[in-house]
Amino acid sequence: MLIKKVPGIPSSEITPKHAYLRRREFIAASAAVVAAAGFGSLAGDTEAQGGGLAKLPNVRKSRFSTTETPNSYGDISSYNNFYEFGTGKEDPKPNSRNFRPRPWTLAIDGEVAKPASYDLDDFLEPLALEERIYRLRCVEAWSMVIPWVGVPLADVIKRAAPTGKARFVEFTTLHDPARMPYQRTNVLDWPYVEGLRLDEAMHPLAILAVGLYGEVLPNQNGAPVRLVVPWKYGFKSIKSIVRMRFVEQQPVNTWQRMQANEYGFYANVNPTVDHPRWSQAREQRLPGFFKNHPTQMFNGYGDQVASLYTGMDLRKNY
Hints:
Elements (H helix, E strand, L loop, with lengths): L16 H21 L22 E2 L11 H6 L13 H4 L9 E6 L5 E4 H5 L5 E8 L4 E11 H8 L7 E6 L19 E5 H4 L5 E6 L2 E2 L9 E3 L12 E7 L6 H5 L23 E4 L5 E4 L7 H4 L13
Parallel strand pairs: 1-4, 2-11, 5-12
Antiparallel strand pairs: 2-3, 4-5, 5-8, 6-7, 6-11, 8-9, 8-10, 12-13
């Protein structure tokens, strides 16, 4: 996997006011249309053209992207892990059809100088949207290449101004069983919680994704905002985020709490550490049928992120 390396994005590249105001109007108008339609107009597999959702204006190509060819929109939007809408890979798409991702509030609190609850669009509008083509590697040993649209997580964190006590960021998914039907079951301990070390969260590859293939996120892919951390297994990329809490102690993520012998806090892609029930040495690159591709350390992003874990035992800190 080839990832282009660049220095930090200068402030001069942040979205100008006239552009983000136009984007805000675009998103607000289209969200109402999407909610009213209930996604009923989506065709089966619309391939690389998108799903007929609202286009996100002023999206620039990112220099961080892989050179690999993305999976089709149909692949990405029809094969999902999102237990709030079902435990089968095909469940989230039909079961999230009537989910309404607007209006949406994002709370940022804990060890920060600027705690607040924000309308998501108000909070994101000054930030530049980028298309980041990343490989997503699932702990179940399958992978896809996905053209996300998002903003650097570091830019969001800087606006919150963490205090000197902040060492981790805890993320929480919406908890609303009326809107997320599988939260009425005990399949997981709700709400879904994930976490990153602060230096991981500040890494240039970590993003908050708000779109896919140039459009707003489909419900089944984590609308309206989700985490994407491409060097970690997919369960780390929490969906439908409503809270970011900055804390001093390492948070306990949902799968670690449910099955600590199988899912640790770090979740770094590591082909030498098998899941207790299967090997991680090879992966199935969808839409292929066989696990015939060698898994890359850190999902192929080792040149960019390995330094975050210098001196750590990555078999113990799995």
